[in-house]
Structures are given as C-alpha cells and as structure tokens.
Design a protein that fits this description.
289 residues; alpha+beta; 4-stranded antiparallel sheet; 10 helices; 4 strands; elongated
Length: 289
C-alpha cells in the first residue's frame, strides 16, 4: 500500500475516533451535569431539551430528529465528508445520550458548578467534533447558508437563535435557568475557540504556494469563497503566490483538506478576524478568470 495512502487512512481513522470521543464527552456533559441542574444548551439541542422536558419524547430522539434535516440542508454547499462526519457525530451523540440518561448518577447539584464545568466539558466535546470536520448542531450549518445570502456573520445568526431559545426557556421554566444557560453558552463558545486553536467566527487565511490559481479555484468551487491573489517572494524558495481569504470556523476543516491535497505544495497560516467591514463576495456562480 502506498505510504501516502496509509497516512491518509490513518488520519481519517484518527479524525473519526476523536470525533466520536467528542460526541460522547458532549453527551456526558449534557446528561450528567447540565440537565440535572436544569441548565439549557443552545441551538437545536436546546430546543430538543425544551420539547423533551414538556413531552415524553426522549432527548436523544428529539435531538436527532431536529438536527438531521438541518445538517442535510445546510451541508449541501460544503464537502460531502462534512455531512458524513456530522451524521456520525450526531448518531454517537444520540446513543450516548440514551446510555447516560438511563443512569441516575449525576456529577453535582450546584448550579454554578454545573454551569462552569458542564460548559467546559460541553465546549470540549463540541470543539473536538468541529475540529475534526463535523458538527453536533444543525444551527451552525444553516447559519453558514444564511450568511452567504445576507450580510450577517455565522456568529450573529447563531447568537440570534440562541437568544430566542433562552428567552423561551425563561418564559417556560424559571428565569434563573435561562440566565445560567446563557452563562453556559458563553463558556462553551470560549472552550470551543480554545480547542480549535483560538478559532472564532471569522478567520483570515493566508496560503503561500506556487499553485495559486488551482487552489483558489478549488476553494471557490468547494466553499463558494473568492480569494485575493498577490505576488510574493521567498528568501530561499523564490517567487510565490500569496492567497488571502476570510472564512467561517466551520469551513476551516474543509479548507485544511484542500490545502493538504497531495497535488498541492502550500503553506497556510490562520489568524483571528475581530471585525469584517464591507461586502464580501460569496458565490460560485461563475468561473475564476
């Protein structure tokens, strides 16, 4: 077997193993820490928790039923591997919720401890899943689609949905439950960023290569992101093409896969974007000239 092929297979297996571990960790954080303390998660999982609390439908079934259509819809503009990995993560997450939900043991009755440590564990689990090219919540996948049509970031769209969910939780349950849930969401988002090398909603990517047009076309047709090409010169390597683009955090694993393609020789640097001003072309309706 070709050495490169063996390396690819090993990397794929490792990605799925870590993705599964992340799904199990996230399920444990929900069932054994957050739910016993009456603390909500955000996104579709949060909606599933509300419905599950008011109906006899298990959380595991409700989570899968709400997230599955959103991932299939939102993931159609991303690589097929994103859908496969997300479906794998959600299936493991649902099974783990069922298993953990059958045991009466829970970590703590203190709401503040549950908020902090439950949020940290949930952020770790979700971050591991995102880092390895999947997602546990379909809200983010749909947010990517909406952000391509309107002048809103993925983070703004997800935050808007979560505020509605927490307001609903405060109305249906107790107000302090909604407040603790919002604090949990803040902790989860920060841990996710830490797990993903400081990954925030917007990322500036700089790629240095000799195959600028090929990589730019690959990014354009895979992610629908246009790329700025600049001329550069390496001290030893000579003339280079420098590509610059801004992507969302959910697109980073796909971008890594493009740049790591064996057909390309490229160096990629990723940095945070604190603010994006002006219009950004996000389309794949025409060819790059």
């Amino acid at each position: 077997m070709n050495l490169n092929l063996e390396t690819k297979i090993s990397r794929q297996i490792l990605n799925y193993v870590v993705l599964i571990i992340g799904s199990i960790v996230a399920a444990f954080a929900l069932e054994k820490i957050l739910i016993p303390a009456l603390i909500m998660d955000g996104g579709m999982v949060g909606i599933a928790m509300i419905i599950s609390a008011k109906t006899p439908i298990p959380l595991s079934v409700m989570t899968l039923a709400l997230n599955l259509p959103l991932v299939l819809f939102g993931g159609k503009k991303l690589q097929r591997s994103f859908i496969f990995r997300s479906l794998t993560a959600m299936a493991v997450f649902s099974v783990a919720l069922t298993v953990f939900g059958k045991t009466e043991y829970h970590v703590t009755d203190e709401k503040l401890l549950a908020t902090v440590f439950g949020g940290m564990l949930l952020g770790l689990g979700v971050g591991l899943v995102l880092l390895n090219g999947g997602c546990l919540d379909g809200t983010e996948a749909v947010a990517v689609m909406i952000s391509r049509k309107f002048n809103f970031s993925v983070g703004q769209i997800v935050l808007f949905f979560n505020v509605l969910i927490y307001l609903s939780a405060g109305f249906l349950f107790e107000l302090d439950r909604a407040l603790y849930s919002m604090l949990t969401y803040f902790i989860v988002s920060k841990i996710e960023d830490f797990v993903n090398t400081g990954m925030q909603q917007g990322k500036a990517v700089m790629i240095i290569t000799n195959q600028g047009k090929e990589i730019a076309n690959d990014i354009y047709h895979t992610l629908g992101r246009t790329v700025t090409l600049m001329q550069g010169s390496g001290l030893i390597s000579g003339e280079k093409i420098v590509l610059y683009c801004v992507v969302t955090r959910i697109e980073i694993p796909t971008l890594r896969k493009i740049v790591n393609n064996d057909d390309y020789s490229a160096f990629m640097a990723i940095s945070d974007v604190s603010e994006i001003i002006g219009k950004h072309i996000k389309s794949n309706s025409s060819e790059i000239k």
